[in-house]
Amino acid sequence: xxxxxxxxxxxxxxxxxxxxxxxxxxxxxxxxxLVELEQRLRIFEMLNANMPQRKIASKLGVSIGTVSRGSxxxxxxxSDYLKKQSWRGQSKLWPGSLL
Length: 99
Prior knowledge:
Elements: H1 2-13, H2 18-28, H3 31-48, H4 53-60, H5 64-77, H6 80-83
């Protein structure tokens, strides 16, 4: 698992720009996987902005369990990158941010 994670991280870290990433991601992930990944990142963004879990679930149209899982990840497992204070209140991460 560790080597697989390292291989994936190295691959994605080598993508040179957003335009290239936009071309590559749909070749690797299905449309539903891309939606799920974006939703997870939005959940982290909203949790970092101290938005209530029920409000997040409502805005994103996901279950409260999905949001609770994101909350647990941030609290106990997340990397410092996901916990960064610089995310708080910023909507630059997602141009159409729901914050």
